[in-house]
């Protein structure tokens, strides 16, 4: 998996305008660990770009990074399903039931 801490384009350090939650703070770029569930498996991604309010702590994950991650995970799960079917001889409907 590629490292998200070095995107092709440099992101600005802060977003223009105020935080949409508290209307006081400014969203600043930080690199956090992103957590998500994929089926019944917890996926963690270190160094994931997020915009974090310096007052209330609201997080907004970078849209391009989310799209990139979803593409990687959907490709990874497709490969796992195909490997599972080859290994067990299960059909697509059989593997969907488990």
What's the short story on this structure?
With 98 residues, the chain is of the alpha+beta class. The chain contains two helices and three strands; from the N terminus they run βββαα.
Mean pLDDT, nearest integer? 76
Q: List the secondary-structure elements in sequence, H or E.
A: EEEHH
Widest sheet: strand ordering = 1-2-3
The counted number of beta strands is: 3
Distance between the termini: 27 Å
Give the strand content.
Answer: 25-35%
Shape: elongated
Rg over C-alpha atoms, rounded to the nearest angstrom: 18 Å
Structural class: alpha+beta
Helical content (DSSP H or I, runs of 4+): 25-40%
Low-confidence stretches: none
Number of helical regions: 2
Largest sheet: 3 strands, antiparallel
List the helices and strands and how they pair.
Blueprint: E1 27-38, E2 41-53, E3 59-61, H1 63-88, H2 92-97
Antiparallel strand pairs: 1-2, 2-3
Describe the structure.
The protein is α+β, with helices and mostly antiparallel strands. The chain has a domain at 27-89. Helix content is 33%, strand content 29%. The protein is built from two helices and three strands; from the N terminus they run E-E-E-H-H. Strands 1-2-3 form a three-stranded antiparallel beta sheet. Strand 1 and strand 2 (41-53) form a beta hairpin. It is elongated, with a radius of gyration of 18 Å. The chain starts with 26 loop residues before the first strand and ends with a helix.
Overview features:
98 residues, alpha+beta, 3-stranded antiparallel sheet
């Amino acid at each position: 998996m590629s490292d998200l801490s070095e995107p092709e384009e440099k992101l600005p350090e802060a977003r223009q305008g105020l935080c949409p939650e508290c209307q006081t703070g400014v969203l600043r770029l930080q690199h956090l660990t992103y957590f998500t569930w994929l089926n019944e498996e917890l996926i963690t991604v270190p160094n994931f770009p997020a915009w974090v309010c310096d007052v209330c702590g609201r997080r907004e994950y970078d849209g391009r990074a989310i799209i990139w991650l979803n593409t990687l995970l959907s490709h990874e799960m497709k490969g796992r399903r195909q490997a599972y079917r080859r290994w067990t001889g299960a059909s697509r409907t059989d593997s969907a039931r488990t």
